Amino acid sequence: MKRDLTTTLLGAATLVSVLAVLGLGLSAPLDANQGSLVRLMFVHVPTAWLSYLAYGGTGLFGLLYLWQRRRHWDRLAMASAEIGVLFTLATIVGGMLWAKPTWGTYWVWDARLTTTALSLVIYGGYLLIRSLIDDPDKRARVSAVVGIVGTLYVPVNYMAVEWWRGVHQTQTLTLLGKIQWKAEAVYLPTLLFSVFAFTVLYVYLLRLRGILAARQEAREERELMNDLAGMEVARG
Question: Which of 2, 4, 9 is nearest to 200 (CA)?
Answer without folding.
Answer: 9
